[in-house]
Amino acid sequence: MPVIVSLDVMLARRKVRSKELAEAIGITESNLSLLKSGKVKGVRFSTLAAICRYLGCQPGDILAYEPSDDDLHPDANE
């Protein structure tokens, strides 16, 4: 997938546990786990904003784009 989620890295840098973040932003630990692993198709801007607010970071600190052939045919992997 061309979008890389490095939320786990930011959690480690801030010394915050997944459970703490999930409770603070009002999502389940399982949904946070799916987001951390990149197994989601999208994330609400309100959720992303809450994560960034709590961790004191920018969206670019936890999301990155790496071009790949998947970009050309995004529905091929479904």
TrEMBL record:
- According to the entry, every stretch annotated as the HTH cro/C1-type domain falls at 19-62
Query: What InterPro entries does the entry give?
Result: Cro/C1-type_HTH, Lambda_DNA-bd_dom_sf
GO MF terms on file? DNA binding
Against PANTHER family, the record matches this protein to: DNA-BINDING PROTEIN (PTHR37301:SF1), DNA-BINDING PROTEIN-RELATED (PTHR37301)
Put simply, this protein is called: Helix-turn-helix domain-containing protein
